[in-house]
Amino acid sequence: MQHLPLSASQGCQAVGRWPKHQGPARRGPPPSHLTSPAAATETRDFVSRICCRAASGCPTTTSGSTSSTSSVGAGACPAFAARGRGSRGGPAADRLAPAAAAAAAPAASASSSSAWSPAEHVSDESKAVGCLLGAMCGNVLAAPYQDDRHYHVVRYRPSGVTDFWRYDIGPSAAGYGQHTGDFGNLLAVARSLVQQRGADTAAVLEALASSYEPERRRYSTYDKVVMDAVLSGTQPLQVPELAERYLAETTRRLATTSSDRAEREPHGPTDKGAAARVAPIGFAYRSAGDDRLLSAVRRSLLFSHPTPLGLDGAHVVAAAAAWAARQQPGDSVCCRPEALLSHLINDVAVTEDMVAKLRLLRDNLFQVDSVSSWKAFYAGPQWQALARMLSLLCYHGYATASSEFAAVALLVFLTNWGKPEQAVIVAASLGGHAPATTQVVGALAGALYGREWVPARWWGALENEAEGMSGRDAVVEVGKALGKLQLAELETAAQQ
Q1: Contact 297, 306 (CB under 8 A)
Q2: What number is the average pLDDT over the span 331-340?
Q3: Which residues are paired to 337 by β-bridges?
Q4: Which of 87, 93, 200, 249 has a beta carbon 3.0–4.6 Å from 220's, enabling a disulfide?
Q5: Helix then strand then coil, % of the chain, to nearest 5
Q6: DSSP track, 303-359
């Protein structure tokens, strides 16, 4: 594939004519192993979620031997209307997601692992692989809760979001063990860094376009608009301005600021899309210094998030990943959550909004205890404190804006210090843009603690197609190559 043009002045198509890549909903067979204790627990949670839907007025039916729920129009029910178009394009529908990878998942406890403990020293390879694997696990774990509010998630999963769920309800549902487009974008950026040995704008855009699978993966509203526009022939550097106007009209967000519907969130060049995919850039430029890291982040988002807020949120996430990659968990002096926050406030964040949110985090930082009972945790004061901080850091609890997104991911990562698996579970429990938020938390955890903390039950259930470019084994190989990069001395090559 040739590089997509970055300076062409012709060929800009009308935004309203960009093609809609909305593949048909795929129905898979129900899992055949529903008699195991883990599956029984998930079935109870599934029934609980259906009941929650019914309580909101959702008509659901059971038909045939597949025990799948019937498709329901989005306008027929407030609970489905709340999902709307958003990142799950197409008609709303309840269905059972396929569980092809379930047989490969090893038996494991549903509670947070207590056997893992941080190593004194973690290699760069382990950190790089952990960064990508942690992001993948977080994305898959949280995929069923896209656009759900935190109080809905804990009703669906009162025993904790501890395992991949076999049932994803709604349009464009993710299959068991499958990741969404958010992780596909992060992996594409990592692969571009490895291939180009630097952050090159055209190469990053080409990698994102090559990995774009709208018929198979769920993408956020703005990510779809950007990729559809670029693939239609729109000049890439014009996309952010055109998309901003398009989204302002189609979502009517400027006239509905009181609405808390997910599809009316402020998607666009200031949203979380770039921040969700830049963790590999932070890792690759971990020794480059703040200025070179900022330059690399800027080059990676010129075609999508060139606004001050979009850049600042992405830079904060990348800087946090770079900081984590430089630290060793055994260093009790330098490797502390307060040290990371101080670095981000004093050396990284620029916009007033981002700085204010980081200071709010610093002033209200606390540590979540190790969770032994998720049901008790969700009913306890620490979960309430997290929910309160979520409401202070972001509007409506979705964390759509780049600064909100970065702040919420850092909230979870910093308050669950030394407990990476627990941090990922808490992030998934907070809902909102859960797959993207949780993948950043997992990436930061992996960049600091390596790959060893990833539970075996998650590892075994990740999608892993033999010929796929985004399966578990392929992710590990990209991570190993990423761990060998030290891009501080390669800035000149990256700008060519």
Answers
A1: no
A2: 93
A3: none
A4: 87
A5: 55, 0, 45
A6: TT--SHHHHHHHHHHHHHHHHHHH--TT-TTT-SHHHHHHHIIIII--SHHHHHHHH
Q: Taking residues 237-248, what's their average pLDDT?
A: 80
Assess contact for 280 and 442: CB atoms under 8 A. Answer: no
Binding residue per annotation — 369? no
Of 343, 341, 271, the C-alpha closest to 312 is 271
Tokens 């800027």 belong to residue: 298
Contact status, residue 453 vs residue 409, Cβ threshold 8 Å: no
Cα-Cα-Cα-Cα torsion 329, 279, 283, 111, nearest 10 degrees, comes to 30
Instruction: Name the residue type at position 337.
Output: P
Query: What pLDDT score does 170 carry?
Result: 64
The answer to whether the beta carbons of residues 383 and 423 sit under 8 Å apart is no
Q: What's the burial of 356, exposed, middle or buried (CB within 10 Å: 0-12/13-18/19+)?
A: middle
Residues 258 and 298 sit within 8 Å (Cβ to Cβ): no
Q: Give the C-alpha separation, 83 to 97, whole Å.
A: 18
Look at the block and give the residue holding tokens 């210090």. 417
Say which residue the tokens 């020794």 belong to.
287
Average pLDDT, the chain: 77
- Mapped to the 3 state alphabet, what secondary structure does 123-174 carry? CHHHHHHHHHHHHHHHHHHHHHHCCCCHHHHHHHCCCCCCCCCCCCCCCCCC
pLDDT of 269: 87
Rounded CA gap, 69 and 189, in Å?
37
Query: Helices 308-326 and 290-300 sit at what angle, rounded to 10 degrees?
Result: 130
For residues 230-234, average pLDDT: 90
Task: For residue 270, say whether it is annotated as part of any ligand binding site.
Answer: no
Alpha carbons 139 and 131: distance in angstroms, whole number: 12
The model's pLDDT over 122-132, given as tens digits with 9 standing for 90+, comes to 999 999 999 99
Q: Which two tokens stand for residue 18?
A: 């960009």
Q: How confident is the model at residue 399 (pLDDT cuts 50, 70, 90)?
A: confident
Print burial letters for 246-257: b (CB count within 10 Å at least 16), e (below 16): bbeeebebeeee
**pLDDT surpasses 60 at 417:** yes
Q: What is the mean pLDDT of residues 156-182?
A: 85
User: What are the pLDDT digits (tens) for 18-49?
Assistant: 333 333 333 334 444 334 455 445 544 544 44
**DSSP alpha helix (H) spans, 64-123:** 78-81
